[in-house]
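Example 3.2
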Amino acid sequence: MSLTLEQVRRVAHLARIEISDAEAESTLGHLNDIFALIEEMQAVDTQGIEPMAHAQDLAQRLRADQVVVADQMARRNAFQAIAPETEAGLYLVPKVIE
C-alpha cells in the first residue's frame, strides 16, 4: 500500500494542517516508508508464536503483600483528626449533585 501526494494533502486538509508542497512530498516519502515496513512485518509467518507482553523477559520486583492491622485504626484516626468533618469512620463531604 502506498499513498499519493493528493491523499497526503487531503489528510493534511482534514487535520487542519497547513503543509507546503515540499513538506507534502517529504511526508509522502516518510509515510510510504512506514507502510512498506508494516507490509514487511505482516509478511512474517507468526504461526505458533506466543504473543509477548513486553519485549524483554523481565520480572517485576514486588514487596510481599502483608495485612497490617495493628496500626490501621491509629492511622485512620490520625487522618480523620485533620479532616473537616467525619462520622462513623467516614469522611463527610458537601453534596455536589442536587
